[in-house]
Every structure is written in structure tokens, then in C-alpha cells.
TrEMBL record:
One of its GO terms (molecular function) is ATP hydrolysis activity. This is Uncharacterized protein LOC113431431. It holds the Pfam family ABC_tran. Residues 22-57 form the ABC transporter domain. The gene is LOC113431431. Signal peptide: none annotated. InterPro entries: ABC_transporter-like_ATP-bd, P-loop_NTPase, Type_1_exporter. It comes from Notechis scutatus.
Length: 129
């Protein structure tokens, strides 16, 4: 449960006291708040495998980074991250790059950057934006 304390910054719900009404299906929450809440619920369940499909796409970069740190330190589990934001996958043990549904490259961030292939070009393009 200590891991959830480290999510405090990323979740950042100071305006939501216990048992607050958030509307049907969380209708009164922003997309980013819904994403943070879904990630917190997943971490509380402590699954052996956690799939995050664009899970932080609507979050500010500092919230994204805080959640990444929390997921990395929250115990032994396999985490499959599907992301277009390059910073989201930089610290992964293994990165798999797909193009047209085919695996075109795999390795660590350092390995892939050294090859200067598709992953390198994606990172360069994202940094230019």
C-alpha cells in the first residue's frame, strides 16, 4: 500500500474527499482524472500482469512520469505498455516497435537509439515537436 502513497502526486485529487459524487460513469471527472483513477484501481488490485494501453495519454508529462515511477516501484509484475509518447517507454526492460502490425525492432532504449532505426526516428521526431 506504500506504493499508492507515491501515487499521491500523480493522482492529485485534493478536491475529491471520500465518498464524493463524481456523476454517472465518472461524468464529472476529466479524462485525465479518469485515467489516473483507473491506474490507481489497477495498482490496488496488485495484478501479476498489468496492461496499460495509452493509459497516460491524457495526462500532463509530470503526472505521466510520476505514474511511471509508481508502476516501476510497485512490485514484481509484468507490465505491457502500449504508447505513442516516447518518454512513456524509455525505461522499459524491452521495447518492441511495430510498423504495419509487424515487429520491426526490439531492444532497450539505449540499444534502439544506437541502431538509429525506426525507434530512433520516432524519438527524434517526438523531440522535435
Amino acid at each position: 500500500q506504500q506504493d499508492l502513497v507515491s501515487l499521491d502526486f500523480a493522482l492529485d485529487f485534493p478536491c475529491l474527499p471520500s465518498f464524493v459524487e463524481v456523476g454517472e460513469k465518472g461524468g464529472q471527472l476529466s479524462i485525465g482524472q479518469k485515467q489516473r483513477l483507473a491506474i490507481a484501481r489497477a495498482l490496488i488490485r496488485d495484478p501479476k500482469v498489468l496492461v496499460l494501453d495509452e493509459a497516460t495519454s491524457a495526462l500532463a508529462p509530470e503526472s505521466d512520469a510520476a505514474i511511471q515511477r509508481s508502476v516501476q516501484t510497485s512490485g514484481a509484475r509484468t507490465v505491457l505498455v502500449i504508447a505513442h509518447r516516447m518518454q512513456t517507454v524509455e525505461n522499459a526492460d524491452k521495447i518492441v516497435v511495430l510498423e504495419g502490425g509487424e515487429v520491426v525492432e526490439e531492444g532497450t532504449h539505449t540499444e534502439l537509439m544506437g541502431r538509429q532505426g525506426p525507434y530512433y526516428r520516432l524519438v527524434e521526431r517526438s523531440q522535435a515537436e
